[in-house]
Specification:
Structural class: mainly alpha
Low-confidence stretches: 97-107
Number of helices: 4
Largest sheet: none
Shape: elongated
Number of strands: 0
Distance between the termini: 61 Å
Radius of gyration: 19 Å
Length: 112
């Protein structure tokens, strides 16, 4: 029984540590000035494009809703699949880029 208590405490402490790390990651990146869309260094981007990107990323919702979506995304490991869906949509010509909001200056560095 003593071994179970030791392992149980360790597992609980590890789960709590992971939860705190995930929460700190969310809080730190949300309290910094700006957001992912305002960090784009795109002079050709229109305000409509930026608004659509904020809506696509869920940045137009409350912090609590963003946090719940963030946890759900991590729980389902949808971060990679969301990136994949964006690439597929761009290849098919969907989204703001196909509607004339092209960003010629924003190319991945590995394609140079």
């Amino acid at each position: 029984m003593r071994g179970f208590d030791y392992v149980g405490k360790r597992v609980l402490f590890a789960a709590l540590t992971v939860f705190v790390a995930i929460t700190l990651n969310f809080v730190l990146f949300r309290t910094l000035s700006g957001d992912a869309v305002s960090a784009l260094r795109c002079k050709q981007c229109s305000q409509a494009f930026k608004d659509e990107q904020r809506r696509d990323l869920g940045l137009d919702q409350s912090k609590w809703v963003q946090y719940k979506l963030y946890l759900a995304s991590l729980a389902r490991q949808r971060v990679a699949s969301r990136w994949h869906k964006s690439l597929v949509a761009m290849q098919r010509g969907q989204g703001a880029i196909a509607r004339g909001a092209a960003m010629p200056g924003l190319q991945p560095s590995f394609r140079r």
